[in-house]
Write a structure and sequence with these properties.
This protein has 317 residues and is of the alpha/beta class. It contains twelve helices and eleven strands.
Length: 317
């Protein structure tokens, strides 16, 4: 059984108690007092949020918005939602928390449309892969008394749609919070508690630092996977083994969604491509010079760094 920890009052002052998952969920539920959560965009991530919430906070009403009736029907049948709407104002009205799960290219438009219908004290967060744009839009478009907290759960897959949603999608994954000087501290705490309830580990970055680092570890890998597929001769398709399929798995993602991400983070992605080209040029020099020892050291360094990355992830650092 996995335990969490919290401070509790003791006879000689605060003490740390190990809380089993059910107790931890009770603590977080009391802290957040969420009665109504609206999920704007019920796909893989939105549907998984709904399933996790209905499992871990059964007293909270989960409402979904989407522009396809078929998707909303599927989400209701899967148990991800208590209520579904094709009308955005109806979906966000009276919500304690609104979670934007739409492509980054639509987020500003959705904020603009929903803003007049949000209640005082409502908190808005998102799951977008880029942060500078949505944070600026939220600070410009949301009315006073409505609080935005940027967040990016590092969970999901190349698969799309609510049919692939599952309640444990976020367990042990990292969620990056992107507060600014204008972020309300109480709202930030509640959104962090929300993601913890869904099983996530948290870290904080500024929106600018988030976009710079994610260009390297998320956006560039998608570009490379797509380029590897694009460079293949058709005759090679029947020769691809598991290694090639593993490396290029993420190239199967939604093209429109990734178009918006790459354009929104264009400056950082271009810088990442330049740095990758420098690595490839270094490899090119080693191959041209036929330097086996140096080539092996280059490959060994990459292997060791990857192992370090896995150890840090597994240790929860």
């Amino acid at each position: 059984m996995r335990y969490f920890y919290a401070f509790e009052a003791g006879p000689d002052g605060p003490v740390v108690r190990a809380l089993p998952p059910r107790r931890w969920q009770t603590v977080l539920s009391a802290l957040m007092q969420l009665r109504r959560v609206s999920i704007v965009g019920v796909g893989l991530l939105g549907g998984s949020i709904g399933l996790a919430l209905r499992e871990r906070m059964p007293g909270c009403q989960v409402v979904g918005y989407g522009h396809r009736a078929s998707t909303l029907i599927e989400a209701m049948r899967s148990g991800a939602l208590d209520e579904a709407h094709e009308d955005l104002p109806a979906a966000v009205r009276d919500a304690d928390l609104v979670v934007l799960c739409a492509p980054v290219g639509l987020l500003a438009t959705l904020l603009r449309e929903m803003s007049p219908h949000l209640s005082q004290g409502t908190i808005v967060t998102d799951v977008g892969s880029t942060k500078r744009g949505i944070v600026r839009a939220a600070e410009e478009l949301l009315p006073a008394g409505v609080h935005f907290v940027g967040s990016h759960p590092m969970a999901g897959s190349e698969k799309r749609g609510v049919r692939f949603a599952r309640a444990d999608l976020f367990d042990r994954a990292v969620c990056i919070m992107t507060p600014t000087d204008q972020t309300d501290a109480s709202a930030l705490g509640k959104v962090e508690a929300f993601w913890k309830l869904l099983g996530m580990r948290l870290t904080r970055l500024s929106p600018a630092e988030h976009d710079r680092l994610l260009a390297d570890v998320s956006h560039l890998p998608h570009v490379v996977a797509a380029a590897l597929v694009g460079m293949q001769e058709e005759v090679a398709f029947d020769l691809c083994g598991k290694g090639f399929l593993d490396v290029t798995r993420i190239a199967g993602g939604d093209g429109g969604l990734w178009r918006d991400i790459l354009l929104d983070n264009r400056d950082n992605v271009l810088a990442s491509i330049k740095r990758l080209n420098e690595q490839l040029r270094e490899l090119e020099v080693l191959l041209e010079a036929r330097q086996p020892e140096t080539l092996e050291a280059w490959l060994r360094t990459a292997s060791e760094r990857r192992q370090q990355m896995l150890e840090r992830r597994d240790s929860g650092e």
